[in-house]
Amino acid sequence: MVKLKIVGIIVFLMILGALFLNYKLSINEENDDNIIYWKPDLKLHTNDFKQTFPFLGDKYSAKIWAYVNFDKDEKGNYIAKAFMDKHKSTFCAGITDTIEVEYLLNHEKYHFNIAAIVAKEANQMIKKQTHENKNISLNFLHKWCYDRLNKLNTKYDSQTNHSLNKEYQYYWEYQIDSLLSNGEYTSSAQSEYGGISCYFPSEPNIEVYVDTFLMREIHCLDKYNMRFRYTIDYDSYDNIESFKDFFISMLSKNGFVDQTLSQTKYNGYDRIISYCSDTIENRKFFDWIIFAPPFKYQLTVNYPLNTPNDTLYERMKNHFFNSVDLSDNDEYWINEFKESDYPVMKRMDITNKKTEDYKTLVTHGISNYSILYHKPIHFKEYLIIPIYPIKNNYNEIENFILFCNGQVYAQDVDSINSIICVNKNDLPDNKMIQFGYTLKSDSIDNVYDLYGTCY
After folding, report:
1. 66-72: strand order across its sheet
2. In the chain, fewer beta carbons within 10 Å around the N or the C end?
């Protein structure tokens, strides 16, 4: 009798495995209300889990059925898709606490994200095999996806203890997001007017602040119980020592303790490395501040103090700082320009080798000045033009001047670089504007001779 029971169980498992390997959804079933196909912005709800709880004596509060299925494209090649079957997914109706519900749904969503990773890997494998004119069977794809899903999901639940170990849960979310994005958000962290980039595992929030004397861009990601942030200040501190004094004073004023500060070089630039802790909020703060005129870059990571798995936060923090890429000054800005023998305006476009952003250099033979300006930036109703004088010190310059549609914009100079903001409504139909700067020692009466032309 025992043998018969064992044989019966084995047969049942074989049938179950065969059913899975042949679980195929037709194109018409994509609209089936029981099926949810994965997409990046998908949010799961408790009513997406329709199976009665518990299932086969399952002891867990929630369980998602997320796997990979295959369709064919117009050329007859297989396409892998991650999907969830609502009627094979369960959520305990007895859980009513909103925070607990959201936490469990998030854990299950990352099981779904793992299925999306496996589908992505399967499509890459299919593409490679197709390129090499090799056939790949549907049974092989199902078996490969099944094994890969089983391995990743088992490890995910084992290390997170089915979401109970919160530090490992955050770390797995970081890893899964990284595999899904595949470096996509490194480029989004590349400033339109700066020479720095760094890695974000998922899309950061981007904010820009502009006033008369300052332009600041902030990229920030609050996730995994951490904050990853970098800030670019245009028109920043010229003197690193004065900034250090300000920074230490600011930390002390805001109650940060255990401050350590060191000064090093990074790609030839001055860099401040800072660590401190906030005992009120119970968080650690790590900062890099890099001075690369005309920019100041500040990279910050913070996470909880005294956690059981502090090394996991440390790994994510190190990955962020190790991903920083800063173009060197000789590549990103031109510091010298050979003066023309003729008293005419000259213009040349300069391309950054890494980012392909362009900048334009304008020089004037009579007054012996040069300007380097970056690609204008669109911000709300304004067009922002960053300007960097090359041939003169900023204390020799009286005004930056911009001439647009009959209107003159003048900007006082208080540092080595500046910005001019123009309301887009003031732009002429041909979108041509002229700009330049006047020197304190310049005796030329016609300031229009000092204009360069840009778009």
Report:
1. 35-37, 78-85, 66-72
2. N
**Rounded Cα gap, residues 437 and 409, in angstroms:** 11
Task: Indicate the DSSP class of residue 416.
Answer: S
Q: Burial level of 224, CB count in 10 A (0-12/13-18/19+)?
A: buried
pLDDT per residue as tens digits for the range 29-68 = 445 788 999 998 899 999 999 987 665 445 678 999 999 9
Q: Is residue 325 over pLDDT 70?
A: yes
In sign, the C-alpha dihedral spanning 254, 257, 261, 267 is: negative
With contact defined as beta carbons under 8 Å apart, do 425 and 404 qualify? no
Q: 310 burial class (0-12, 13-18, 19+ CB within 10 angstroms)? A: middle
Torsion sign, CA atoms 172, 177, 182, 183 = negative
Counting every residue, how long is the chain? 455
Q: Which residue has the tokens 């004023």?
A: 253
Please give the structure tokens belonging to residue 302: 């913070």
- Spatial strand order of the sheet with 295-304 comes to 205-210, 215-223, 226-234, 295-304, 283-292, 269-278, 257-266
Residue 115 CB burial class (10 angstroms; 0-12, 13-18, ≥19): buried
CA 43 to chain centre: 21
For residues 326 and 331, the model is more confident at 326
State how far the Cα of 422 lies from the Cα of 417, in Å rounded to an integer: 17
Of 38-42, 172-176, 234-238, 433-437, the range with the lowest mean pLDDT is 234-238
